[in-house]
Design goal:
The complex is a heterodimer of chains A (about 425) and B (about 400). By secondary structure, chain A is an alpha/beta fold. Chain A is built from eleven helices and 22 strands. Chain A has four domains: about 1-30; about 45-160, Translation factors (Elongation Factor Tu (Ef-tu), domain 3, Beta Barrel); about 175-315, 3-Layer(aba) Sandwich (Rossmann fold); about 320-435, Beta-grasp domain (Ubiquitin-like (UB roll)). In chain A, helix 6 (about 255-265) crosses helix 8 (about 290-300). Classes of the chains: A alpha/beta (about 425), B mainly alpha (about 400).
Chain lengths: ~425, ~400
């Protein structure tokens, strides 16, 4: 179609869509929320826009993603194999996030850029700086690299914050949160504990935190101090599978039995009687076997599924980074883009690019946030063609059945036709969603 | 007309809620078009009215493309042709400022009653209660946050329009000194977009969609090919509206960053209106036929009324009180003290400027009298005022109110 005609057809489509929606009582939203991160840019990116990632040195590695460069201003060794990096905007911009969210950190290892999700562990009230805590993963290139080589003064490129494993703090809230963490799963939970205790003076938190040995407990001193300071509002329980002599806390691997035992114990604690726990919300974060065990335990404990929130660590270091796509499709692949059925654009994906990177480079206003398969903001529908997608990721079975793919972790194996869905107000479509 | 309107309201109230809103909106758009009895006015504002009010082009969630059809006026001789504009150009260069130098580190808590974005008296709790709106103290703070974010969002959308209009006017104006000055105004408007956008992003956390009526104004100015209509619309009417709105908020807010931001913006805007007055004064007196002038007189009057009557903040209505009949909401907005002050300030700036450029002729004066606007006739126009005297006036009024 010639350009001016296509433009008119598209405009006509939008006009009709608006009229139909209005008469059905579906009115355009009066406003959209903007989460600030730095000077004038929203937390959920839509489209390629100018970004610190386009600065010299960051360009080729960051691709078309609107990354943000943050400086490491402090480094704390939490345990032998976990380090906390405190980040700040070198231009003095604020770092806003909702406790529970994560940053996608772009880590350069041996000439390759790896994207990893690291939960923000600091209080969301502190806006000048924010911390991520990184625990070594066996065989994990990014986590080991950061543990070995990160230093104060270095800059990290980040995306986000993203994720919906969150508790939005509200001074008026009166709620009970039961938080269950295993190992480095404490990081988003720590941000929730720190922020909620400070903001919600009428809310109560129980934290059950499992580790192997006493030396593996991340944030131990800080959590103990918070429990003393907020006695009666923070019920802290450490559970160790390999406890030292004379250990007074819980004992065992956080499996189904241990978890049930700990929940039963919690019911006997002052302020956490069964009636109070009836209204509680549960947040669970840890390694996959623990998550499964806790899920079973909570079901048996009678907690409705809707009140259980989970953050699953996908394991990007175990994913194939498009090797199959590179082998099978060594040449650029063409992509036709439709919007609600109407063709709107076309572009090519080079062998080393993801669908999202290529689309953004071509100037398409694609929504995305974490760019590593963890939040679902970049979902598109595959109409024709075949792709390789990095697994595991956050797509649900229903979404897969609808033919949806995550543009940020998918590479074409052949020419594609994709549909980027009905037009949404910019920013609204990108509502980040936590990986379950 | 009043009678039909009232009957329409009654009929509308019998319909189910979601249809009721739509029908009311439809009647409002029709009423606007019906008010423009003059076919030339209908031609100038009608298509934009359909695009903005019925099709809601500004709210479709996609970039809007508007075709501009003015002529770029080149002059290869580069004459020094307008000393007053040359002086404004010099002042504008002096007056440049950096958005980064505002105190962005100020911690803005929109819900802190100690440092309110707008004081409680802006909305008038009594007025709210009289119109059946009962809010708890916490809700009222949230409501004020919404209202402030709505106003600033409309400022931001208006500044985007001003940015493009300033660029078009710079192309179209026939004075070369005007082109040089115009370049600084493009820069100014870009900076205004920057600061309002940043404030909304970082401090208030939300952006309201463009108000349909503001969209209509911007759309009609963008599409009008006559440079002096763009000038009149942008430099006199919309900048006048902006000065009214900025002045009101500047006077009322207790939030130091916002106050400082508005202070800087008002200083720029004062130059912009001054430029509009200088450029249009001679053109309207010397270049236009009687018929052309009459058309602009009518247009300015209609747009002034549009601005007074139609900025009803329906976006807030939909967010907060979707169940309240829109007619009741209009009465409520009409009674809010802050909105009344805004209209005051706007007309006190606008009417003297229309007088100065020669659009308050005996032919249209009776209409202004009927609309109750005569008391503004004697005020100072933009070319007789400086930004300092304007800000002083606002500051003095604030002190008097406090005393």
């Amino acid at each position: 179609m010639p350009e001016p005609l296509r433009e008119r057809v598209e405009q006509l489509g939008r006009d009709l869509e608006m009229l139909v929606n209005l008469w059905r009582g579906r009115r355009p939203p009066p406003f959209r929320t903007r989460v600030a991160s730095g000077a004038g840019r929203g937390g959920v990116a839509a489209g390629p826009g100018p970004s610190p990632g386009d600065e010299p040195g960051a360009g080729p590695r960051a691709g078309a993603l609107a990354t943000r460069a943050l400086e490491i201003v402090a480094l704390t060794r939490e345990t032998d194999d976990a380090v906390t990096l405190t980040l700040a905007d070198p231009d003095g911009g604020e770092l806003r996030f909702v406790p529970g969210q994560f940053f996608t950190v772009l880590v350069d290892v041996g000439g390759e850029t790896l994207r990893r999700a690291y939960s923000l562990s600091s209080s969301a009230l502190e806006r000048e700086r924010a911390s991520v805590t990184i625990k070594r993963v066996s065989g994990g290139r990014a986590s080991n690299h950061l543990n070995d080589h990160a230093a104060v003064g270095q800059r990290l490129l980040v995306l986000g914050p993203s994720g919906a494993f969150t508790v939005a703090p509200s001074p008026a809230a009166r709620r009970v949160l039961v938080l269950i963490a295993g190992g480095s799963g404490i990081t988003p939970i720590a941000a929730i504990v720190r922020t909620v205790l400070a903001v919600e003076t009428s809310s109560k938190i129980a934290l059950i935190y499992g580790n192997r040995g006493a030396a593996d407990i991340i944030f131990r001193a800080q959590l103990d101090a918070l429990a003393r300071e907020h006695e009666g509002r923070l019920e802290l329980r450490h559970v160790l599978s390999d406890p030292p002599a004379g250990w007074a806390g819980g004992v065992g691997l956080l499996d189904r039995e241990t978890c049930l035992h700990e929940l039963a114990r919690l019911e006997t604690r002052p302020g956490f009687d069964p009636e109070t726990l009836d209204d509680a919300e549960y947040f669970v974060c840890g390694p996959e076997p623990m998550m499964e065990a806790v899920r079973d335990a909570l079901r048996e404990f009678g907690v409705p599924r809707a009140r259980v929130h989970e953050e699953r660590f996908s394991q990007p270091h175990l994913r194939g980074q498009g090797a199959r796509a590179r082998a099978r499709a060594p040449r650029p692949q063409g992509v036709q883009v439709r919007r609600a059925g109407l063709p709107v654009a076309g572009f090519e994906v080079a062998p080393e690019q993801t669908l999202l990177e290529a689309g953004l480079t071509a100037g398409l206003p694609l929504s995305y946030s974490c760019a590593m398969g963890g939040c679902g903001a970049c979902k598109v529908r595959l109409v024709e063609g075949e792709v390789e997608m990095e697994e595991p990721n956050c797509l649900t079975d229903e979404e897969r059945a609808r033919g949806e793919v995550l543009a940020c972790v998918c590479r074409p194996l052949a020419g594609l036709v994709i549909d980027i869905g009905p037009r949404r107000a910019p920013g609204l479509g990108g509502a980040a969603r936590g990986g379950r | 007309m009043l009678g039909t309107r009232w009957d329409a309201d009654r009929l509308v109230n019998l319909l189910p809620g979601r249809v009721r809103v739509q029908v009311d909106e439809f009647f409002e758009a029709l009423a606007l078009l019906a008010e423009l009895r003059d076919p030339r006015l209908l031609y100038a504002l009608g298509p934009a009215g359909v695009r903005g009010m019925l099709l809601k082009r500004g709210k479709q969630g996609a970039p809007t493309r508007i075709r501009a059809s003015h002529k770029a006026h080149f002059n290869w001789e580069y004459p020094a042709d307008q000393p007053e504009m040359a002086e404004l150009y010099a002042r504008a260069k002096q007056g440049q400022w950096r958005a980064e130098d505002l105190p962005w580190s100020t911690d803005v808590d929109p819900l802190n009653p100690e440092v309110p974005l707008i004081p409680s008296s802006f909305l008038g709790p009594d007025v709210l209660r009289e119109h059946g709106v009962r809010l708890s103290a916490a809700e009222e703070l949230k409501f004020r946050h919404s209202v402030t974010a709505w106003m600033l969002s409309q400022f931001l959308h208006g500044e985007q329009g001003a940015l493009f209009a300033a660029a078009q006017v710079t192309e179209a104006v026939q004075f070369f000194d005007g082109k040089l000055y115009g370049a600084t105004q493009v820069m100014d408007e870009g900076r205004h977009v920057e600061v309002f956008s940043r404030y909304l992003d970082e401090k208030l956390g939300r952006l309201y969609q463009i108000n349909d009526n503001l969209y209509v104004l911007i759309d009609s100015l963008m599409t009008d090919s006559r440079w002096d209509m763009k000038f009149l619309g942008m430099q006199i009417m919309i900048e006048g509206l902006a000065l009214g709105a900025f002045g009101t908020l500047y006077r009322q807010t207790r939030e130091p960053l916002l106050k400082q931001l508005l202070r800087m913006v008002i200083q720029d805007e004062a130059r912009h209106v001054h430029y509009g007055v200088v450029a249009l004064r001679d053109h309207i007196r010397d270049e236009l036929s009687a018929r052309e002038r009459a058309e602009r007189e009518d247009w300015a009057y209609e747009v002034a009324l549009l601005m007074r009557n139609r900025f009803m903040a329906y976006e807030i209505h939909e967010e907060w009180f979707p169940a309240m009949p829109r007619a009741r909401w209009r009465r409520l907005v009409g009674a809010i003290p802050g909105m009344n002050e805004f209209r005051q300030v706007m007309f006190s700036r606008l009417v003297p400027n229309l007088r100065e450029i020669g659009l308050l002729t005996p032919r249209v004066l009776p209409r202004y009298e009927r609309a109750g606007l005569t008391r503004f006739f004697g005020g100072a126009s933009a070319n007789q005022m400086t930004a300092e005297s304007m800000l002083e006036g606002l500051d003095r009024q604030t002190i008097e109110d406090a005393a």
